[in-house]
C-alpha cells in the first residue's frame, strides 16, 4: 500500500496571491476599487443584455451575465448592491426571448426555493432531502382551491372554492408551515445523515401518496387547466410576468430570511448548528427553534409551489420527484451555504446554465457527448457536489461565518489527528 | 393460507437481497460513522457489470446455453469486480479527502457520487431497461399449491452463503479483526499498528463485493437492469441496516429479512401500491422509538 503523498497545505501554496490582493485592498485605491469597481460591471451587463440578439449568441450573453453577476456578488454586500442587483434582474428579461425568459423564471423560482431550504440547511444546519414535499404541498393546495370546472379532482369539484391566486399565497404560507412542523416533530431527535434519509423518505411518501390517491389529487392523471393569476382585470400568463411575481416574492423572502437570521432566532439557529448540545445547555429551546426553521423553510417552499402550479397550469405527481430536492440542495451547497448571494449564483449555475447548454455538444475526439446541458446535467451536478465538497466545502460564495465553521472544523480535526 | 406462505417466500427472497446490501451500509458505517449514500448505486453498477458479461457471452459464444452455471458465476464475479473497482475509486476521490471534514461534507459528497453514477448509467443506457439474457434455468418446485422458482432458491441460498462468508471473514480473519478494531476506535487501532487507510478501503471493498453480487442476482431475478434500480433497494437496505442497528452485522441480516417480510405482507394487508411506503414508515418509527435498532449498541449520540 503506497503511503499518501505529503502535500503542502493549501493555505501555504495559495498565500502569495492572496497576500498581494490583501495588500492592494488595504490601500486607498484598493478600497475604492473594491467598493465601486463592481458597479462598473453594470454597464457591461446592460450592454450584453441589450446587444444579445444583434451581436452575440444568446448563450454567450447568458455566460457573460453569469460572470458579471458572480463578480458583482463576490464583493457587493451592502443594501445598494442589492438594489442594483434587483433592478438588473428586473430589466434582464425585457431583452430576452421566450426561451431565455423561461430560464430566468426557473432561475428565480429555484432561487426562492433555495432561500427556503437555506433557512433549514444553511441557518439551522438540518440537512433536509425532502424539500420537494413542501413544494408539492403548495402546488396541490393551489390546484385544489382554485377549482377549475374541468381537469380537477372530485374533491375540488365538490367544494368549488374558487379562490384566486393572491389569497392562496398567504394560505400556502400557513399550510406549508404547518406541514413543515408536522413533518418536523417526528424527526426532531435525529441528526445529520439520519435526518437526511428520513426527510428523503417523507418527500417520496408525499409523491407516492399523491400518485395513489384519487379523491383529492386524482392520482397520476393530475390536476390541470388551472387559472393564471388575475391582475387588475387581466391575467398574468407570460413567463416574464410570472418572473416578476417570483422576483418580488423572492425579494420579500430574502428580506425576511436575512432579518430573521440577524435576530435572536438566527443566533439560536447558529448555536444549534455549531453544537446542539452546547446550545441546549445554554438555555436555547432547540425543539422550538428547529421547528421554526422547518416551518419557515417549508412556508417558502409552499409559496414556490403555488407559483409554479400557476405558471404550468397543471400539477402532476411526477413534477415532485427527488430531482427537485436534489437540485435545490445542490444549488444551496454549490453556491454557498447560509448566503443569499451564493444561492442566486447557485441557481444561475445549477438551473440556468444546464438549460443554456441544452444543445451544446462536447467533442473529446474519441467520444462525443451530445446535448450536454439537457442530458448530462445531473451527471455534472453529481461531480460538482463531490468537487465542491473536496475542494471548497463552504461553497463558491459562502457566508463568512459558515466558511469559518467549515475551515475551523477541518483545522481542529487535523490538529487533533496529528 | 397458501397465499400467506407464498408471501413469506417472496419476503424471504427480497429480504435476503436487502440483507446483503444492508451489510455494506453497516460495515462502512461501522468504520467511518458515515452513511454511504452511493451504496445503492454500487448495487446497480454491479448488476450492469453482470449484464454486460452475460450479454457478451450471449452474443459471442453459445456458452450461455452449454455452460450456464459457468457464465452465471463469471457474471456474478464481474458484477462484484465492477462494484469493487468503483468503490475503491469513490473512496479515494470522494470520501478520503473528507475524512476530517465536518459531518455534512462526506454525506453531500456521497449524494453527489450517487447522482453521478445513476445519471451516468441513465444516459449510457438511453434510459432504457436492459433485458437480461435468459440464462438461469426456468422452472420451479411445486409443493401443493405453492410455487417456488429455482432462481428464488438460488437467491436465498446465495444470500445466506454470502452472509456466512462475511461473518467468518469479520470474526475469524486478521483483516476482519482489524476492521472491528478500527470500528471500535480508529486512533487506538492506528496505535496498535493497524493500517487504518487500508482497512477502510477493505471495508468498502467487502461491502461493494456483496452489493455487486446482490445486484447481478437481483437483476437476474427481475430479468432486467436499469439505472434507477439501485435507488429503492438502496434506501430499503439502509432501512434494514437501521432496523437491525446500524454498525451491527447480525442486525443488518435480521433487518433485511424483517423488512422483506413486512413489505411482502403489506402488499396483502395494505395494498401493493403502498409497498414502498412501508420501508419509510418503518424507518421513521424505528428512528423515533429505538434509534439504536434491535441489535445495535445504545449510544448517547447518534449521527
Principal-axis shape of chain B: globular
Mean pLDDT of chain A: 78
Q: How many domains in all of chain A?
A: 1
* N- and C-termini, Cα separation of chain B: 42 Å
CATH architecture of chain A: Orthogonal Bundle
Structural class of chain B: mainly alpha
Instruction: Report the radius of gyration of chain A as a whole number of Å.
Output: 23 Å
Query: How are strands sequenced across the largest beta sheet of chain B?
Result: 1-4
* Secondary-structure element pattern of chain B, one letter each: HHHHHEEEHHHHEHHH
The total of beta strands of chain A comes to 6
What fraction of residues of chain A sit in β-strands? under 5%
User: What is the N-to-C succession of helices and strands of chain A?
Assistant: HHHHHHHHHEEEHHHHEHHEEHHH
Low-confidence stretches of chain B: none
Secondary structure: helix percent of chain A: over 70%
Cα gyration radius of chain B (Å): 19 Å
Amino acid at each position: 500500500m503506497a503511503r499518501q503523498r505529503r502535500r503542502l497545505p493549501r493555505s501555504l501554496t495559495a498565500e502569495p496571491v492572496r497576500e498581494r490582493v490583501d495588500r492592494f485592498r488595504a490601500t486607498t485605491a484598493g478600497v475604492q476599487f473594491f467598493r465601486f469597481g463592481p458597479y462598473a460591471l453594470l454597464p457591461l451587463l446592460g450592454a450584453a443584455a441589450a446587444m444579445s440578439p444583434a451581436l452575440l449568441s444568446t448563450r454567450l450573453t447568458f455566460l457573460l451575465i453569469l460572470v458579471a453577476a458572480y463578480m458583482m456578488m463576490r464583493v457587493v454586500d451592502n443594501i445598494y448592491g442589492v438594489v442594483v442587483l434587483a433592478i438588473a434582474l428586473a430589466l434582464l428579461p425585457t431583452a430576452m426571448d421566450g426561451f431565455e425568459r423561461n430560464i430566468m423564471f426557473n432561475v428565480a423560482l429555484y432561487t426562492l426555493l433555495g432561500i427556503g431550504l437555506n433557512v433549514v440547511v444553511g441557518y439551522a444546519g438540518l440537512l433536509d432531502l425532502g424539500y420537494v414535499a413542501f413544494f408539492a404541498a403548495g402546488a396541490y393546495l393551489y390546484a385544489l382551491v382554485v377549482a377549475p370546472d374541468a381537469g380537477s379532482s372530485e374533491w375540488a369539484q365538490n367544494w368549488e372554492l374558487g379562490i384566486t391566486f393572491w389569497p392562496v399565497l398567504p394560505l400556502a404560507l400557513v399550510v406549508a408551515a404547518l406541514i413543515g412542523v408536522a413533518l418536523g416533530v417526528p424527526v426532531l431527535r435525529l441528526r445529520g445523515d439520519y435526518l437526511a434519509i428520513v426527510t428523503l423518505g417523507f418527500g417520496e411518501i408525499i409523491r407516492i401518496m399523491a400518485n395513489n390517491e384519487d379523491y383529492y389529487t386524482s392520482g397520476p392523471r393530475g390536476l390541470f387547466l388551472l387559472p393564471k393569476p388575475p391582475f387588475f382585470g387581466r391575467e398574468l400568463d407570460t413567463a416574464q410576468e410570472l418572473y416578476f411575481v417570483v422576483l418580488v416574492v423572492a425579494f420579500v423572502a430574502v428580506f425576511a430570511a436575512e432579518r430573521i437570521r440577524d435576530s435572536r432566532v438566527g443566533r439560536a439557529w447558529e448555536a444549534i448548528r455549531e453544537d446542539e448540545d452546547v446550545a441546549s445547555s445554554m438555555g436555547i429551546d432547540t425543539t422550538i427553534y428547529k421547528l421554526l426553521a422547518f416551518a419557515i423553510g417549508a412556508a417558502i417552499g409552499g409559496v414556490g409551489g403555488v407559483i409554479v402550479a400557476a405558471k404550468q397550469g397543471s400539477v402532476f405527481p411526477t413534477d415532485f420527484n427527488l430531482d427537485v430536492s436534489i437540485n435545490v440542495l445542490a444549488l444551496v451547497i454549490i453556491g454557498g451555504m447560509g448566503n443569499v448571494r451564493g444561492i442566486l449564483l447557485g441557481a444561475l449555475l445549477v438551473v440556468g446554465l444546464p438549460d443554456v447548454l441544452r444543445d451544446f455538444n462536447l467533442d473529446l475526439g474519441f467520444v462525443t457527448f451530445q446535448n450536454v446541458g439537457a442530458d448530462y446535467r445531473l451527471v455534472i451536478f453529481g461531480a460538482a457536489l463531490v468537487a465542491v465538497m473536496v475542494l471548497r466545502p463552504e461553497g463558491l460564495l459562502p457566508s463568512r461565518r459558515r466558511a469559518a465553521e467549515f475551515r475551523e472544523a477541518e483545522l481542529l480535526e487535523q490538529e487533533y489527528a496529528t | 393460507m397458501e397465499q400467506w406462505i407464498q408471501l413469506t417466500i417472496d419476503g424471504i427472497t427480497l429480504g435476503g437481497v436487502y440483507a446483503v446490501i444492508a451489510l455494506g451500509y453497516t460495515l462502512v458505517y461501522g468504520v467511518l460513522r458515515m452513511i454511504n449514500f452511493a451504496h445503492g448505486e454500487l448495487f446497480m453498477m454491479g448488476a450492469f457489470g453482470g449484464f454486460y458479461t452475460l450479454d457478451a457471452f450471449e452474443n459471442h459464444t453459445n456458452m450461455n446455453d452449454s455452460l450456464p452455471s459457468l457464465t452465471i458465476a463469471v457474471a456474478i464475479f464481474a458484477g462484484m469486480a465492477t462494484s469493487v473497482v468503483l468503490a475503491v475509486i469513490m473512496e479515494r476521490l470522494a470520501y478520503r479527502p473528507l475524512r476530517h471534514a465536518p459531518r455534512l461534507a462526506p454525506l453531500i459528497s456521497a449524494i453527489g457520487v450517487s447522482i453521478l453514477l445513476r445519471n451516468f448509467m441513465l444516459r449510457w443506457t438511453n434510459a432504457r431497461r436492459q433485458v437480461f439474457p435468459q440464462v438461469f434455468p426456468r422452472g420451479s418446485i411445486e409443493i401443493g399449491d405453492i410455487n417456488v422458482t429455482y432462481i428464488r432458491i438460488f437467491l436465498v441460498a446465495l444470500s445466506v452463503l454470502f452472509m456466512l462468508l462475511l461473518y467468518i471473514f469479520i470474526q475469524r480473519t486478521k483483516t476482519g479483526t482489524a476492521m472491528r478494531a478500527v470500528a471500535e476506535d480508529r486512533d487506538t487501532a492506528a496505535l496498535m499498528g493497524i493500517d487504518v487507510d487500508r482497512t477502510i478501503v477493505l471495508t468498502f471493498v467487502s461491502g461493494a463485493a456483496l452489493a455487486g453480487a446482490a445486484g447481478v442476482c437481483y437483476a437476474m431475478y427481475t430479468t432486467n437492469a436499469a439505472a434507477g434500480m439501485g435507488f429503492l433497494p438502496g434506501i430499503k437496505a439502509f432501512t434494514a441496516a437501521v432496523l437491525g442497528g446500524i454498525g451491527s452485522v447480525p442486525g443488518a441480516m435480521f433487518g433485511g429479512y424483517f423488512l422483506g417480510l413486512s413489505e411482502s405482507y403489506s402488499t396483502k394487508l395494505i395494498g401493493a401500491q403502498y409497498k414502498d411506503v412501508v420501508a419509510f414508515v418503518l424507518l421513521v418509527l424505528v428512528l423515533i422509538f429505538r434509534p439504536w435498532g434491535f441489535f445495535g449498541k445504545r449510544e448517547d449520540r447518534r449521527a
